[in-house]
Amino acid sequence: MLVFILNAGSSSLKYQLMNPVSKEVLATGLCERIGIDGVLKHEFTDGKKLTLDVSMPTHKEAIELVLKTLVEGEGKVINSIDNIDAVGHRAVHGGEEFASSVMVTPKVIETMKKLIPLAPLHNPANIMGMEICQDLMPGKPNVAVFDTAFHQTMPDYAYMYALPYDQYTKHGIRKYGFHGTSHFFVSNEARGMLDKKHNTRIIVCHLGNGSSVSAVLNGKCIDTSMGLTPVQGLMMGTRAGDVGAGAISYMMTQEGMTIDQTLDVMNKKSGILGISGKSSDLREVLQGMQDGDDRCRLAVEMVAYNIKKYVGAYVAALDGVDALCFTGGIGENSSLIREIVCAGLDGMGLNIDPTKNNKRSGKPRDIATNSSTARIFVIPTNEEYVIANDTYKIVSGLEK
Ligand code: ADP
Q: Measured in angstroms, how far is the CA atom of residue 236 from the centroid of ligand 1?
């Protein structure tokens, strides 16, 4: 079984070719600057890379080029497109309609179109990716795997905003949460790593350019930090995270900003970039802090403090904790952020071992001291595997 995994964004797309049974990845790559000029970066399993500067006026040309690259020339990894059994699509917003992955049908696309107001940048690109694949590979099954699905198990008192109730009934205004495939993958791995098999209380910190925390009880999400859109929750690379509504309306008045300008500031110019004034990339900001830049120091301390507050809140939401997990570029690589987040949490049963924390490894590992009541795991996420595996299960009828 070979699954072509597609993550279509507004001007870029990521892809991977994977066998979900053996977990073998045949190729992975990225098309950037679609509609501008176009560059394809294709990577083989042995790390060999191929970069092609080819015009990609639309997503269709980009996907055509990717498929061509997989079957011929230097990038070739399969003999024919017929070797691909199914396509798995990352889909961002499934609203309340999709609590699990589904086979893409005209009805699914129609429902996703209705959800566009909830994700105006992402859902149209995802739908476009599905329609192009159906067009270019007629008859091949396509599966949609939603970022929001894993969080659909949250209880109403966790997902509701305390706005007038009809805002929910009329417009679906509530928390949905994102990064669901990562939260599912990591919490599931963590469950496997715990000795305990029942009443498992797991907190997952997915820390990348976009970041979110989730509380997972017995494999089911009971709360998460992102909201109706991904701008809520933790401070991120360029997103503000939690900011009081009063501060936002005051900033709009003072700056004479429109809603769109305000959202642009909160999504693209805030977070680590906004505070440091240097970069959205934590590595550069950590370097700035080492060089004595005080705003970089502030950004790093804010990032860690925000995560720590959510961890504390979710220990309370779960009535305790069995495992705290770190994943994503920051979670997997920054021992400093992990150290600051865990400092002083011994009372909650979380006791980090500095030596284990500072050791590097690309494998899942426990960085808690032996005497720590709860475990602290670093688990590399694998969202592509979740997409490929869901696709495999749905296509082969193992899951309806
Ligand atoms: P995305 O959300 O785009 O998938 P990633 O999960 O790759 O992002 O995470 C990117 C973030 O991880 C960046 O802020 C980057 O600086 C950070 N990061 C990567 N490696 C390290 C490292 N060794 N130390 C600190 N931060 C790191």
A: 11
Domains, the chain, ordered by start: 3-146 (3.30.420.40), 197-383 (3.30.420.40)
* Cα separation, 200 vs 187, whole angstroms: 10
Question: What tokens does 41 get?
Answer: 């970066």
Instruction: Take residue 47 and report the two structure tokens written for it.
Output: 């790390």
Start-end of H helices in 40-171: 59-71, 106-114, 122-136, 156-159, 166-171
SS3 352: strand
| Coil/strand/helix, residue 35 | coil
- Any idea which residues carry the catalytic annotation? 147
Is the minimum distance from the CB of 281 to ligand 1 under 6 angstroms?
Answer: yes
Would you give the DSSP letter of residue 153?
A: G
Query: Residue 366 — φ and ψ, nearest 5°?
Result: -105, 125
Rounded distance, CA 282 to CA 278, Å?
10
Beta bridge partners of 366: 377
**Comparing C-alpha atoms, which of 18, 51, 4, 5 is closest to residue 32?**
51
- pTM for the model stands at 0.95
The rounded Å distance from CA 306 to ligand 1 centre is: 17
What six digits make up the tokens of 234?
């933790």
Top pLDDT among 44 and 89 is at: 89
Q: Give per-residue pLDDT as tens, 220-245.
A: 999 999 999 999 999 999 999 999 99
Write down the residue that tokens 């950590």 correspond to: 286
- Identify the helix (H) or strand (E) that includes residue 339: helix 335-342
Strand partners, 102: 144
Indicate if ligand 1 lies below 6 Å from the C-beta of 329. Answer: yes
Give residues with Cβ within 8 angstroms of 264, minimum separation 6: none
* Residue for token pair 């997409």: 387
Alpha-carbon distance of 102 to 88, in angstroms, equals 10
The model's pLDDT over 172-212, given as tens digits with 9 standing for 90+, comes to: 999 999 999 999 999 999 999 999 989 999 999 999 999 99
Report pLDDT digits (tens) over 63-99. 999 999 999 988 889 999 999 999 999 999 999 999 9
Decide: residue 221, CB within 10 A, 0-12 exposed, 13-18 middle, 19+ buried: buried
Axis-axis angle for helices 259-268, 245-255 (nearest 10): 120
Question: DSSP label at 256?
Answer: T
